[in-house]
Amino acid sequence: MTPLEIDALVIDVLGTLVDEPAGIRAGIRALAPSADEAGVEELLTLWQRHVEREQRRVLDGARPYLTSDVLDLEAARLVADALGVHDPAAVAELARSGRRLPPWPDTVPGLDRLAQRFPLIGLSNAGRSALLQLNAHAGLRWHQALSAEDVRTCKPDPAVYQLAVTVSGRPPDRLLMVAAHAWDLRGAQAGLRTAYVARPVGDPPTSSDRFDLHADGLADLADRLDRAGGTGS
Fold it and tell me: Exposed e or buried b for every residue in 100-129, given b needs 16+ CB within 10 A?
């Protein structure tokens, strides 16, 4: 195997390090305690589809850039409307569930281990204020956390990955993009090296995807980087 000469890791947040659906489910259950599991999943899907659709519209130029806070509030309103809830305070509280996302069990120890060897750069579609609260709630360890809000677009727009390249001050092929979403890694392949980390809520690779590493979690990723000869700094 050709050694991976890596100077820093660029790591996705939503879905890769935190369980986004679990946090939103918790918000839905708090708003509608009597909802059954099927109803909660239907409302979760309503939320997720709205955010995905509107981010795609931003990427396509059909809508001006909006922060994740705005999209979460729009999604919360849709969910609340479906439940017949029209209290603005309740809707706002539901929207905040998009910032209270639990980390995966291996996330905090995995980041601690990786941070001993590599600079860690978080790169997220979450807005700046949302990312701050996400990091604090989940206890994420970073050397730098970057929001797509800084370039007013969303991944997989190349400008978002270029933000990480610019901030790192390193050539893109010396950065390893880590994500649980194949679509995210495909976007990063414009220059960065790539590592897929399997998560229950991720977007798994297809047979045609060619990523540098595949890992079952962050501990496995650290092991594979050891074996692959990643350099760190």
Answer: bbebbebbbebbebbeebbbbbbbbbbbbe
